């Protein structure tokens, strides 16, 4: 179908890469929303604020939440 639009191989590859990137970004965003909802280390007000931050700031809010409030691993990694 895209070939009918006159798109070449490079354009099709770019479209596929951008679609994959969009899928990864959306999956990360949804993961951060679910994490904020389930985070037992937050009070109810903090949880609500973080959910609103992630929802309204989208990818930027998800990144901020990940580094600021996302629960960290309790046990150290074995090296």
Write the layout of secondary structure elements.
Elements: H1 9-38, H2 44-68
Helix pairs in contact: 1-2
Please describe what this structure looks like.
This protein has 79 residues and is an all-alpha fold. It has a domain at 27-79. It is built from two helices and no strands. It is elongated, with a radius of gyration of 18 Å.
- Mean pLDDT across all residues, rounded? 88
Individual helix count: 2
Unreliable residue stretches: none
Order of helices and strands: HH
In helices, the fraction of residues equals: 55-70%
What is the 3D shape?
elongated
Structural class: mainly alpha
Taking all Cα atoms into account, the compactness measure Rg is 18 Å
Termini separation (Å)? 50 Å
Topology, number of strands: 0
| Main sheet overview | none
Strand content: under 5%
Summarize this structure as a short list of keywords or feature phrases.
single chain, 79 residues, elongated, mainly alpha
In short:
Helix content is 70%, strand content 0%. It is mainly α and 79 residues long.
């Amino acid at each position: 179908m895209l070939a009918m639009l006159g798109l070449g191989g490079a354009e099709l590859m770019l479209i596929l890469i951008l679609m994959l990137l969009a899928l990864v970004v959306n999956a990360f965003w949804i993961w951060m929303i679910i994490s904020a909802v389930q985070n037992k280390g937050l009070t109810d007000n903090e949880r609500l604020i973080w959910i609103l931050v992630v929802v309204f700031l989208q990818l930027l809010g998800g990144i901020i939440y990940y580094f600021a409030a996302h629960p960290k691993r309790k046990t150290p990694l074995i090296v």
